[in-house]
Write a structure and sequence with these properties.
Distance between the termini: 69 Å
Strand content: 5-15%
Structural class: alpha/beta
Number of helices: 25
Helix content: 40-55%
Radius of gyration: 28 Å
Shape: flat
């Protein structure tokens, strides 16, 4: 088998992530044709001469003497001692990548950006890349412009395993890449640092999302107290078939067949697919939700269908309170999000309702629920993660509001290609690719179970067995019987709920005190920095050693704020992005105590403290309202609470 065919086989396994643009859509591309001449170097290894045109003298991609020695020299100064992310501009002939692979930690990641299609194809045809293409730590981004690359990496960073590597990002630019694409690597780097590692104040959006989740978790606290948690249902449906119904366009192909599974398999509907199922006369056992702010407006407000009372709602109590009003007569199962700080904190106070892995979509919640109840096989339907042949994003029974909500991540610049189950390219998006990765990671961690993709379309999910739903029902479901989930849900008796409220009040009060302390410390440090800034602003370049030491003493004080952030799980969730960006930016200044570096450090710390202070002010104000709400509950005020009363927050900065 030729090298190219072997590489295609390795690529086809889908282990390393390879992202290529949608060729049917016009996007800005930096690619241009070049003339490549492969030459054997003095050391006997391949190198390549690159010419821009026939009259160009050209330049070598790698050393004409010893490409490996050159590669080792280029990457030897990188820090391999801790987990991190290496962003490499240029695939070359793989020499630098292989040397990085030898040295990097098991949890590190490498992102390779290559904008020359000719260079990429030449490498695929002439270099054995199995070691790289079959290593899930590698991602190859081929011929995407800056905007598309940023979009993809931003979605990647939503996945915790990638996010936590941002404190140690290192860049490598191969010499030929700089010659072919002058200044592109520096442009990429600058925008990557600004857009992903942080325009500092954009971190506020993450803080707002966290605050919304915090508020709604507490305003829905009765739902968590008086309903059973997912841990009660561990292995209740062990080795029973379970269908996860998503809302992709292929749902139209087999939705009617799902009716045959009622009473024979557990049917878990993602909230977006509930309407389509009900309209077909299908009653799922469970409907799951995830989003903090969109479920009610997009799916439940002004709905044109009835929700049967024996359909169980399941999910985290961070959804907006109106969702629970829509399911007022339905039984519920509370599932906290595994690994999420606020969820873990509240779950511990409530005695352990239980957690499930929720990924980054409601379909992952449904999948995590199926895993927890012991389901086997787990059957996916409507899980396209791709456009239909007609360009549809959802099945016909899904509301237009939901379809319209997808437009922000289905724009032409976000289009990429994935592979379907027949190894043919299928049009998808960057966001759907990240969701695909989540599914594959979850499946890889669950050995011994059968996972079936009965979507009958869409992207191929590694680890699944591809079957039609008809085949799946005939083989795994038709001879089964199950108890409906609604029928096995126990009643939760709580003798003294006021004691739970008091425990919650005590814990929230302790967290509030921590944020208030951090606020006060930030303000004090901020005042000192601003006094120093005013004193030396016009002459920092000419300050003497004694004056420089005076500035450093001011800077050292703010380290106490940074250390306080790391003492509690709740402060970590609010400030992890800020801490990461701060460390990256400080490290970029280097160790030299030059006047310029000390002054830039001062400016960075001013931003850092300002964001910290403002976030703490908001959190303290929100916690005051949460405490007011919980105290009303503890005092026996009416359960039907007007939540808007507690959402009016006055913040004075």
């Amino acid at each position: 088998m030729a090298i190219y065919e072997r590489n295609l086989k390795s690529k086809g396994k889908g282990i390393a992530m390879i992202v290529e643009p949608d060729e049917s859509i016009e996007n800005e591309s930096y690619n241009y044709p070049v003339i490549l001449e492969n030459i054997i170097s003095k050391s006997g290894l391949l190198t390549t001469k690159i010419k821009m045109n026939e009259s160009d003298a050209g330049f070598f991609m790698h050393s004409s003497y010893d490409p490996v020695s050159e590669a080792k020299r280029q990457i030897e100064s990188l820090n391999y001692d801790k987990n991190g992310m290496f962003i490499v501009f240029g695939i070359g002939l793989g020499y630098q990548l292989l040397e990085i692979k030898k040295r990097m930690t098991e949890k590190s990641k490498v992102v390779v950006i290559e904008n020359s299609v000719d260079v990429y194809n030449n490498t695929m045809r002439n270099i054995k890349l199995k070691e790289l293409l079959e290593d899930n730590r590698f991602t190859f981004i081929i011929d995407l412009n800056i905007g598309q690359t940023i979009m993809f990496l931003r979605e990647m960073m939503r996945i915790p395993v990638f996010f936590y590597l941002l404190s140690n990002v290192q860049f490598v630019t191969l010499s030929y890449y700089e010659k072919m694409f002058p200044r592109k690597a520096s442009e990429f780097t600058k925008i990557l640092l600004e857009k992903i590692l942080g325009k500092w104040h954009s971190l506020g959006n993450a803080a707002v999302d966290t605050i919304v989740g915090l508020v709604q978790n507490f305003y829905n606290i009765d739902e968590a107290i008086f309903n059973p948690g997912i841990d009660y249902f561990i292995d209740k449906y062990k080795n029973k078939p379970t269908i996860v119904v998503s809302a992709g366009p292929s749902l139209d192909k087999n939705i009617e067949l799902i009716k045959e599974a009622e009473g024979k398999a557990v049917i878990i509907a993602c909230d977006a697919s509930l309407r389509a199922l009900v309209k077909k006369g299908i009653k799922p056992d469970v409907v799951v939700s995830l989003e903090r702010v969109t479920v009610y407006d997009q799916l439940l407000k002004n709905r044109d269908y009835e929700i049967a009372e024996d359909i169980v709602w399941a999910g985290p109590p961070l959804v907006e309170p109106n969702v629970f009003k829509e399911f007022k007569k339905n039984k519920k199962i509370i599932c906290y999000k595994a690994g999420e700080t606020i969820n873990t904190w509240i779950d511990e106070i409530l005695g352990g309702k239980g957690t499930i892995y929720m990924g980054n979509s409601v379909a992952h919640v449904a999948f995590g629920f199926a895993l927890k109840i012991g389901a086997d096989p787990i059957i996916l339907t409507g899980q396209d993660l791709a456009f239909s042949e007609n360009g549809d994003t959802h099945g016909s029974g899904i509301t237009d509001v939901v379809k319209q909500a997808t437009t922000h991540y289905t724009q032409p610049k976000q289009i990429i290609y994935l592979k379907d189950s027949n190894d043919k390219p299928i049009r998808s998006t960057i966001l759907w690719k990240t969701m695909l990765i989540e599914f594959e990671n979850m499946i890889m961690q669950c050995k011994g179970r059968t996972f079936i993709d009965a979507t009958e379309g869409g992207a191929y999910i590694r680890g699944t067995k591809v079957m039609t739903l008809r085949e799946t029902i005939d083989k795994y479901i038709k001879d089964q019987t199950i108890e409906r989930v609604n029928d096995i849900i126990p009643k939760v008796n709580v003798d003294k709920p006021e004691e739970i409220y008091k425990t919650l009040i005590k814990s929230v009060d302790e967290k509030r005190a921590l944020f208030k302390k951090m606020n006060d410390m930030s303000q004090e440090c901020l005042d000192n920095i601003r006094i120093t800034k005013k004193e030396y602003d016009e002459r920092y370049k000419t300050i003497n050693e004694e004056q420089k030491q005076s500035i450093c003493n001011v800077l050292v004080k703010s380290n106490e704020v940074y250390e306080l952030m790391k003492t509690d799980i709740l402060t970590i969730i609010f400030f992890q992005g800020l801490m990461t960006v701060f460390v990256v930016e400080i490290n970029k200044l280097g160790l030299e105590l030059s006047n310029e570096n000390v002054w830039n450090n001062l400016l960075l710390q001013e931003d850092f403290l300002l964001i910290t202070r403002d976030t703490c002010i908001a959190v303290v104000a929100v916690m005051d309202k949460i405490l007011e709400f919980l105290k009303d509950k503890a005092d026996g005020k009416p359960a039907e609470t007007d939540f808007s009363k507690y959402l009016s927050i006055e913040i004075i900065c």
